[in-house]
Amino acid sequence: MTVVAPVLSMRSAGLTLGGRRLWSGLDLDVDAGEFIAVLGANGSGKTSLLKAVLGVHPLTEGSAAILGEPVRRGDRRIGDVPQRIHPEDGAALRARDLVGFGVDGHRWGPGMPGARRRRVDALLREVGAEASARTPVAHLSGGELQRLRIGQALAGDPRLLLCDEPLSSLDLRAQRTVSDLIDLRRRERWFGVVFVTHDINPVLAHVDRVLYLAGGRFRIGTPEDVLRSDVLSELYDAPVDVIRTRDRIVIAGAPDDSHAHDHGEGAA
User: Fold this and answer.
1) How far apart (Å, rounded) are the C-alpha atoms in residues 87 and 137?
2) Do the strands 61-66 and 69-70 form a parallel or antiparallel pair, or are they unpaired?
3) Residue range 134-158, pLDDT digits in tens
4) Phi, psi of 167, deg, nearest 5
5) Total structural domains in the chain?
6) Strand ranges, E, within 197-255
7) Integer Cα distance of 44 and 114 in angstroms
8) Do 189 and 261 lie in a common domain?
9) Predicted structure pTM score
10) How many Cβ atoms from other residues are within 10 Å of residue 224's Cβ?
11) Which of 110, 136, 157 is the last residue of a domain?
């Protein structure tokens, strides 16, 4: 019987930055095709978790592996969709140039060899961005830009897609479009997804499990198992109410350094 390694495996993992322990003792497996949402308080280490998987922040405890191999910086098996930030050279950069960075790095200029052009065209079609291919990046909406970031991340045929607040500052329609696109591609390509978000609601229909970080501690399980008043009250060591209404989840009463799922959050 063939045993398939998880696309991401973390064992007794811990991370300390600036003298502060963000989390420790983390055991997490992400399987191919699985969608994990990462939630938690401001400064709880959600973004830092992704950076640890990318090899940017070396773990201070434990281990992390991609398909059984230790994580390393620049691993093409990992796709990265960052927070919505317009490139500084967006006035000159076109949409197709941004996707092209995922094909061959930040080398761009006039003309495209045939194979590269065809690859970029295919990625633009895959994320539904053909119409904006020649549009300057500075003229794109937030939702259009995130489509391109997804196309860029898919260029390396990743086995794991890391998404850091990709819905931040998008309107509700764009949030649905972007989250549905990520879900569709992970089902078609069968890669794992680790999706950091301050609001579970736009992705709730897609999520298999939740990793909730708070105060150096964490809980992992299905949304039904983790997003409960008793579980989060124990995690925060304070009364927390989880309210479900019209297929939405609202978390109320968490400490001031935390988030409510309908509000913004800073990176950590």
Assistant:
1) 8
2) antiparallel
3) 999 888 898 999 999 999 999 999 9
4) -100, 0
5) 2
6) 209-214, 217-221, 241-245, 248-252
7) 46
8) yes
9) 0.89
10) 9
11) 157
